[in-house]
Every structure is written in structure tokens, then in C-alpha cells.
Amino acid sequence: MNDDARTNIGTPSPGTTSSEERELREQVARTREELGQTVEALASKTDVKAQAKEKAAAVKEQAADKAAEVADKAAQVAGQAALVSDKAALVSGQIREKAGRAAQLLKDKTPDPVREKTARAAVQVRQSAARAGQYAADKTPDPLLEKAGQAATAARANRTPLIVLGTALSVFLLVRRGRGRRR
User: Fold this and answer.
1) What angle is formed at CA 135 by the lines to CA 130 and CA 137, rounded to 5 degrees?
2) pLDDT for the residue 27
3) Alpha-carbon separation of residue 137 from 134, 153, 159 (angstroms)
4) Are the C-beta atoms of 114 and 170 separated by less than 8 Å?
5) How far is residue 85's CA from residue 5's CA, in Å, rounded to a whole number?
6) Which residue would you say has higher pLDDT here, 95 or 142?
7) How many H-runs (helices) and E-runs (strands) does the chain carry?
8) Secondary structure letter of residue 14 according to DSSP
9) CA distances from 104 to 99, 108, 110, 168, 173 (A)
10) Sign of the alpha-carbon dihedral angle for 77, 83, 89, 94
11) Percent over 90 (pLDDT), the chain
């Protein structure tokens, strides 16, 4: 290749027409535009700061979406927990009401002499229990006394069910004893 051929690269030859010239200029413009886009793409790939910002924005958006999803799920669970709590309170109230009615029914159906005997027996049991308790307190180590005190407090807090149980047991034993004598 000679020097003239090298210097004349891209220059139209004297025999080219204006339409060919225009076409070549358009092709050069397109090539420059494509080259510019390629350079921009390469520059953006090497721009670590911009890539980090884009990644941070994407992660931030994902975190916001996940937080909203978790908040919705928490609201659903809280609603379900409230429903369960309300139902438990309702059932608890019903149980208390039925236990109260059963205790009153038992009390109403128990004859007066049986109640009197039960009351006397309860007094005797309390006295015996007090004596036994005093004896046990004198002989029992302190840690065991503390546990017994806690149990006694629980029994005092649930006095009515214990009295009903004692009355029912007394009635049962008296009825059984009465049937045994008849035979």
C-alpha cells in the first residue's frame, strides 16, 4: 500500500457522486453514534459508584416490600390472636357460670341435716388440720414450710370449689353408708 492510499482512506474519490457521498457521511454518523453508545455502556459498567447506588436502591425497594409484607402478616396474626382471646374469655365465663349453677344446685338439693353435719365435720376438720399444721410446722424445715404456705394460699383462693367438693364427698359417703345399712 502506498502513502497516497493511506491518506485517502475515507475521502471520496473524484469519481464519486453526491448520493454516495451522503451515504458515506450517514454511515460515518451512525458508526460514531454506535461507538458513542458503546463507550457510554462501557463507562457505566466501570462506574462502581453508580452501580452501588443502583444496587442499594434495588435492595432498599426489596426491603420495603418485605417489610410491608411482614407488617400485613403481623396484622393478620394479631387479629387471629384477638379472636382466640375473645373466645377463651367467653368460654371461661360460661364455665364459671355453669360451675356456680352446679354449686348452687348441689347446695339447694342437700338436706339441712346433711349440711349441718357437713358444717360440724368441717369445723372438726379445721381444728384437726390446725393442730396437725402446728405440729408439722414445728417439725418441718423452713424451705418446705414456704412451699406449704404457697399451697395453703392457693387453697384459700379456691375455697368455694373445695367446699363444694367436700360437701359432695360427704353426701356421697352418707348416701353410701345409708344404703349399706338397708341391705
Assistant:
1) 90
2) 94
3) 5, 16, 22
4) yes
5) 94
6) 95
7) 6, 0
8) T
9) 9, 6, 10, 12, 20
10) negative
11) 9
Cα→Cα distances 26→12, 23, 36, 50, Å:
14, 5, 15, 33
Q: What is the pLDDT of residues 58-100, one digit of tens each?
A: 888 888 888 888 777 777 877 777 777 777 778 888 888 888 8
Residue with cell 405440729: 135
Asked whether the whole model's pTM tops 0.70, one would answer no
Dist CA 30 CA 22 (whole Å): 12
Amino acid identity for residue 97 in this structure: E
Name, in order, each residue with C-beta under 8 angstroms of 136's C-beta and a sequence gap of 6 or more: 148
Grid cell of 43 as nine digits:
463507562
Q: Residue 36 corresponds to which cell in the numbers above?
A: 458513542
Please provide the average confidence, as pLDDT, over all residues in the chain: 80
The whole-angstrom distance between residue 118's C-alpha and the CA centroid of its chain comes to 49
